[in-house]
Amino acid sequence: MNQPATASIERDVMEYDVVTVGGGPAGLSFAIRLKQLNPEITVCVIEKASNIGAHILSGAVIETGPLDALLPNWRSNPPPICIDAKHDEFWLLTKTGGHKLPTPPGMANHGNVIISLGAMCAWLAPQAEALGVEIYPGFAAAETLHDASGKVIGVRIGDMGVAKDGAHKPGFTAGIDIHAKVTVLAEGARGHLTKRLIKRFQLDADCDPQGYSIGIKELWQVAEERVTPGKIVHSFGWPADSHTYGGSFLYHLDQGRIALGYVSGLDYTDPNYKPWEAFQQWKNHPMVKPLLDGGNILSAGARAIVTGGYQSLPRCDMPGALLIGDTAGLLNVPKVKGTHQAIRSGMLAAEHLVSSALQADGFDAKLRASDAMAELKTVRNIKPAFKKGLWFGMLNAAWETVTNGYSPWTLKNKADWSSLHKLGQFEAPKRDYVERTLIPRDRLQSVYYAATSHDEDQPVHLHVLNTDVCVSQCAKEYANPCTRFCPAGVYEMVEDAAGKRLQVNAANCVHCKTCDIKDPYENINWVTPEGGSGPNYQNL
User: Fold this and answer.
1) Is 50 an annotated catalytic residue?
2) 431 is catalytic
């Protein structure tokens, strides 16, 4: 994986027992637990965002059991946003109204708390540092390092100060090499290093392709009398059609704040579907809009969510490295929760490494025998059944819930990029959209609320492998769906004197990874930009 063009650069080397890639809940929980068990082990956490939490986006309602086990006294010093869950509602929406349904058992949140996951990670980081963990935000792991046998021996941090044409700018700084006995990948959904390692070590040889959704979220400030702290509302139905997996969350926080978002399954089949526009439609529903009218957006963003579950879990150990959290694929889809699984897997990884003298081998077996995997097994058939339509999916979900997942079958997953119908080969669903009046007016304004920032003069981190495909085959067969599924307006088909071409507005990117997942030709490869680039989410 080493890049020949940079092989001659002299690089500083840092040595640790363990290097952790990703400062999310899995990576930080792992580092904390490792130091709790053995303070002599040296561990660093590297994070591509400018600060811890800046790239973190989640609902988020969390089950507190794993956090209680990790930090038993955390409630005496809770995260900045932490509201006890008090009331659940579950709605089936129509265009003009809705029907309140019984809350599914997995969505019953009594005993849980509503948090900002970004703020929670920023809260976890100093607790890790107090134990001796070294944390380096703004360090983007560009590639993994390997010895002669292929074993992972660490990571290389991306160079800083490289111009778009590859030339070194005056402030050029070569990325350092971090060597470690074990490398722990905690990159979140669709990690770019994990993607390469899965292919290199064939970690997915015995599982289904991974599945994903895109979650788009906004944090609003509204009149305080509209907010009922602790109220949790989930919905499905409109604006999604019956063959598109979609649903919303709306969480009442404190101080007049509401966290809301919409999740679209990336296994959707309609090439004209627009996840960002579906979210904006949902906001203008008569049961949602009165909460937001006259309010302001504080922050907004988007992120891929890993939803393949039990049957899509790759092998989670390899020579010199292991996978935890959403990088492994541990999110529980029916619960709409993954943070407790991330913390749980991070702790389990730390316990394994301490007991095995820092040997990665054997972690996969330990993970599969754990409560984390048992939880995924019971719900393995719920999400895949929705591919057969909303009503079949609902009936199947009821069956799987009643039987606690003891069906003698396991439904299969297929890759999201392969699910799109070609233009003219299917009956387009009636979208039945309404007039939108709430902000933001378009995707570019939404990017403003994400506070995303990339140096314009750096190499483009969205690699379109064959642009000819975009102009010819993709335009004809799918009408360039990248211009619709990207929530940040990164991809644009333009026509000038030279003809029609794809324009990549990489500076808009919010690092959601949707393009890397959904492109029907697997023609887009997301790699990390310069460290510190990207969104700067506030309390998402």
Assistant:
1) no
2) no
